[in-house]
Amino acid sequence: MRPGVRWTNLSLRALRRKLIERSFRVGLGAVTALLRRHHFGRRQAQKKLSAKRHPLRDKQFCKIAQLRREYGNSFNPIISVDTKKKEFIGNLYREGHLYTQQTIETLDHDFPTSAEGVIFPHGLYDMKRNVGHLNLRTSHDTSRFACDSIGHYWKNYGRIAHPDATSILLLCDGGGSNSSRRYIFKYHLEQLADELGRSQLGIDIGLSGG
Q1: Are residues 133 and 33 in the same domain?
Q2: 135 assigned to some structural domain
Q3: Does residue 31 sit in helix, strand or coil?
Q4: Rounded to whole angstroms, how far apart are CA atoms 65 and 63?
Q5: Do residues 26 and 66 both lie within one domain?
Q6: What is the phi-psi region of residue 87: left when phi exceeds 0, alpha when psi lies from -120 to 50, beta otherwise?
Q7: Less crowded by CB within 10 Å, the N or C end of the chain?
Q8: What is the pLDDT of residues 133-145, one digit of tens each?
Q9: What is the pLDDT of residues 113-133, one digit of tens each?
């Protein structure tokens, strides 16, 4: 906490009790008015401060913006890829509602040990066509899986949708199996680029992590 910053996590009723203990006669309305007068409001912490600023940070995002402009004016696709939250398989509770004629009963606790397995979804989003694609894996979320997912998508769907493409721009986040900091992901990505090149598709992979 910064010096000089006053805060409290007490409720209005708790603040009123504290004031009464100090011989003040106040109601909840008076407590609310006092907080407002002294510019206290209910706020939630926001992740806005950068822990470390790299001198080339702006250059990185300028490069990404330049690539997006170049690909936006070409026949080449822009694909956003990301691994989604893993899901446990089994008779476990799920959020949401559905129409049914019978009561749906699930286990009372969603322990991982009660699951029959786990699914790792890897999503790909074609930004030009506004079309999404999802691949599922039941073992582990690995860099090889991420690259295999990209290759499967392109061979079965992407090259059909973009017959005149000569390269692909991949927009990846900075974490998980497709982290820009993981050398193993770059290694498998290079293998994927070589594989697509050998099949005479003329595909170059452009990676931009952020």
Answers
A1: no
A2: yes
A3: helix
A4: 5
A5: no
A6: beta
A7: N
A8: 988 887 777 888 8
A9: 787 888 888 889 999 999 999
